[in-house]
Design a protein that fits this description.
The chain is α+β, with helices and mostly antiparallel strands. The chain contains ten helices and 13 strands. The strands form four sheets. The protein has a five-stranded mixed sheet, sandwiched between helices. A three-stranded antiparallel sheet has the order 1-5-6. The chain is elongated and about 85 Å long. The two termini are 41 Å apart.
Length: 399
C-alpha cells in the first residue's frame, strides 16, 4: 500500500486508537485480577472502553476512527487471553504463552483490521477504500480469488504498509492446481546445502544474511552515531529496518518457491524434525537462523494440507547419516567433516547428505521395493516433542 501524507496521518491515528483500546482492556482485566474479581465480559468492556469512553474528554478522540477498528482490537485482546488460559491448561499446542502485555507506540509492527460491516471496498481503479482513511493506492501481488471477509492493514518496522485479506478458497480448485503424481521424495536439510533430495539433487543455501552483513553493518554503524531522539536517528533506524526486511523478504521468497516446487512435483514428502532451538545455542546459531528451516517446513506442512499431499516428519534421533541406504547396516557416528563414506558391509560409497535423504524417505515409509511394498513401513516418531530442551542428538542435522 502507498498512502499519501493525509492517509498516513489517518492510519497513524487508527493505529494509536486501536492500541489504546487494547491497553485499556488489558488494564481492566489486570485490575479485576488484583482485586480478586471475575474478569469483565467482552460486552461490558465494549460499552465501557469504547461507547462510554468516547463521551469523555480524555477519550473523545476515539470517535475519529472507525468503530470497527476499536471492536476488532478488543477481540484481539480477548483472543490473547483465551490463548494464554488454554496454554496454562495445556490444551493449546506449542510453547507456553505468557499473559497479554501492554502495547507500545514504539512497536515495530502495528496493525488494524476492518471486517465486512466496516463497508470498505475495492474501487474500480484498484484502490482500497477504507472508512475514515480514504482510497489508498495499492500494488496488487495477485488477483483475489473470492470476496474477502476482512482486511488487515499492517505497518512494519521499515515504514512499509501492507494489506492482508482473509478469503475462502475452493478445495476443488486447489486440487486441480496440483494434479496427483506417483513421485515421493526425502529431504535432508543442512547448512552447506540448504536441502539435499533423495534423488541426488543438491540445493545450495542462499545465505541471505551472510551476504547482506556488510551492508547491515554499515547501516547499524551509522545508526549508532546519530543522536538519540533526533530525526536523523529515526531515519537511520528506518534504513536499518528496511535492510533487515529486505533479507527477510528474500529468504521468504526462496522458501515459497522451493516449497511450492516440491509440493507440486511430489505426492509424498519426508523431512526430519530438527531441534532448531537446540542448534541455535551452538556456534552455528547465525547460520541456523539464516537458513530458516522451521519456516520452510511450516510452508511444506500447510501447502501439503491444502493441495492434498502427504508430509511425514521422522524423529530427529533416527540415525540417517549412520545407516547404509543400500543394505541397512548402521555404521556408527561420523565427524561432520566426513562428507563421503564407504559401507563396511556392502562396500557402497555414499555421499553423506544424499544417503541421509534416502534414509529419511525410507524411515517415513515412502520408499517402495520392486514389488510395491514399503521398504520400511511406518514413520519413526520423535522421542521427545519439545525441541531444544532435552539436549542434542548424537549428530545434529545442521551439517
Amino acid at each position: 500500500m502507498y498512502p499519501d501524507a493525509g492517509q498516513r496521518t489517518a492510519l497513524a491515528r487508527a493505529f494509536g486508537c486501536a492500541r489504546v483500546v487494547f491497553n485499556d482492556c488489558v488494564r481492566a482485566r489486570e485490575d479485576a485480577r488484583k482485586k480478586g474479581q471475575p474478569f469483565p465480559e467482552a460486552g461490558e468492556l465494549s460499552k465501557r472502553l469504547i461507547t462510554q469512553a468516547k463521551q469523555t474528554a480524555e477519550r473523545a478522540w476515539l470517535g475519529e476512527v472507525s468503530a470497527v477498528v476499536l471492536q476488532q482490537s478488543l477481540r484481539d485482546a480477548e483472543a490473547a487471553y483465551r490463548n494464554f488460559f488454554a496454554s496454562l491448561k495445556g490444551t493449546r499446542k506449542g510453547p507456553k504463552l505468557g499473559p497479554p502485555r501492554f502495547k507500545s507506540r514504539k512497536d515495530s509492527r502495528q496493525s488494524i483490521r476492518f471486517t465486512a460491516n466496516a463497508r470498505w471496498k475495492i474501487t474500480e481503479s484498484g484502490r482500497l477504500d477504507l472508512p475514515r482513511i480514504g482510497a489508498v493506492k495499492v500494488r496488487w501481488s495477485r488477483t483475489l480469488p473470492s470476496t474477502p471477509s476482512s482486511v488487515t492493514v499492517i505497518k512494519d518496522s521499515g515504514g512499509r504498509f501492507f494489506a492482508s485479506f482473509v478469503i475462502d478458497t475452493d478445495p476443488a480448485e486447489d486440487a486441480a492446481r496440483m494434479p496427483e503424481t506417483d513421485r515421493t521424495i526425502g529431504i535432508d536439510l543442512g547448512l552447506i546445502h540448504f536441502a539435499v533430495l533423495s534423488t541426488g539433487e543438491k540445493i545450495d543455501s542462499p545465505r541471505f544474511l551472510r551476504r547482506a552483513e556488510k551492508k547491515l553493518k554499515k547501516a547499524q554503524r551509522e545508526l549508532s552515531r546519530k543522536q538519540k531522539g533526533s530525526r536523523n536517528r529515526d531515519k537511520a533506524r528506518v534504513k536499518v529496518a528496511r535492510a533487515h526486511a529486505k533479507v527477510t523478504d528474500a529468504r521468504r521468497e526462496f522458501h515459497h518457491q522451493l516449497s511450492t516446487r516440491l509440493i507440486s512435483e511430489n505426492q509424498g514428502i519426508a523431512v526430519e524434525s530438527l531441534s532448531v532451538a537446540g542448534l541455535a545455542r551452538t556456534r552455528l546459531a547465525k547460520s541456523v537462523h539464516d537458513a530458516g528451516w522451521t519456516a520452510f517446513v511450516n510452508m511444506l506442512e500447510y501447502k501439503a494440507q491444502r493441495y492434498g499431499r502427504t508430509l511425514v516428519k521422522i524423529g530427529r534421533f533416527e540415525p540417517t547419516s549412520q545407516t547404509c541406504s543400500t543394505c541397512g547396516t548402521v555404521d556408527g557416528p561420523k565427524p561432520l567433516d566426513v562428507r563421503e563414506w564407504t559401507c563396511t558391509a556392502c562396500g557402497t560409497v555414499h555421499d553423506r547428505d544424499t544417503n541421509a535423504a534416502i534414509n529419511v524417505k525410507t524411515a517415513a515409509g515412502l520408499a517402495v521395493s520392486a514389488c510395491g511394498a514399503p521398504v520400511r513401513p511406518g514413520a519413526i516418531p520423535a522421542q521427545r516433542e519439545e525441541t531444544g530442551s532435552h539436549g542434542f542428538p548424537t549428530e545434529p542435522r545442521a551439517a
